[in-house]
Amino acid sequence: MSSNKQSVETLSTPRDLVLWAEQQFNNANLFFGHGTDNALDEAVLLVFHVFGFPFDVSDKKLDLPAEETERARAIELIQQRIDTRKPASYLINKAWFLGKEYYVDERVLVPRSPIAELIAEQFVPWITESDVTNILDLCTGSGCIALGCAEYFPEANVVGSDISKEALAVAGINKQQHEAGSRVEFVESDVFDNIPQKQYDIIVSNPPYVDAQDMASLPDEFKHEPSLGLKAGSDGLEIVHRILQQAGQFMTDKGIIVVEVGNSQEALMEAYPKAPFTWLEFEYGGDGVFLLTAEQVKGLSN
Ligand SMILES: C[S@@+](CC[C@H](N)C(=O)[O-])C[C@H]1O[C@@H](n2cnc3c(N)ncnc32)[C@H](O)[C@@H]1O
Known about the structure:
Layout: H1 2-9, H2 14-27, H3 39-51, H4 59-62, H5 68-84, H6 88-92, E1 95-97, E2 100-102, H7 115-120, E3 134-138, H8 144-152, E4 157-162, H9 165-177, E5 184-188, E6 200-205, H10 212-216, H11 238-246, E7 251-260, H12 265-271, E8 278-279, E9 289-293, H13 294-300
Parallel strand pairs: 3-4, 3-6, 4-5, 6-7
Antiparallel strand pairs: 1-2, 7-9, 8-9
Helix pairs in contact: 2-3, 2-5, 3-5
């Protein structure tokens, strides 16, 4: 603690603060994976937030002497990140998805799904953008996937659904922040129970999929996230089974469904040994996301 104090006095610029935070975070063995995957990026999030810097701030600004209030606030946030193990996004109420800023708090998971990459590619080659009229994002949380889809499919209507009223309140904030208008609707629904009966061209979902064994060994950072967004029974497939059983009734003939199951991929393949899952690949990391066509989904129940 005393060596900590001593070094704090020497921190005079934003760059000093970032590099010091990186070192402190590495020493404290924090877990990263809530929007960043390393100590330096986590440090940048906190310090840049305090100084109001964009990510492409100039070197010159990074090296100017910091005002005492901002210096003290940055040190306070860095210490909170270590003491509480709260992911940086919850400390600053901000996360990024598809390059856009989202409001987040502990009512929703911090957006991090690799599905972002598929949205940016408009799900090519699996579907043609001009054929897409209706999109459903099941288990929407902060609304990031639904709002991302609305941006990349400017002619489509998007429904985002969640069982959690609290999560939907956050999705509502993001809908306003992104000025999504009437094309995006958020509804409260237990999986498909209250979904407007439409035929969707794309159903996309990042549902809860953490199995009991993984739940028991998650790093402390995950304990700040709503467990409703993570835990999914002994094999992690509680919600995914329900999605697969009913999805066929909500898809157009040429529709596709894309679902993230993360570490539960193996359990899913064991549960549906004959299912023709396409496991998607990602340029920027991530796995455990499958795609099925409407025909393939309907075939699962035969
Ligand atoms: C893994 S989080 C994903 C949030 C968001 N789609 C994302 O990618 O950041 C899963 C979400 O599913 C919701 N959820 C849990 N059980 C559900 C259910 N039975 N029906 C609908 N949503 C559910 C949780 O409230 C949570 O917001």
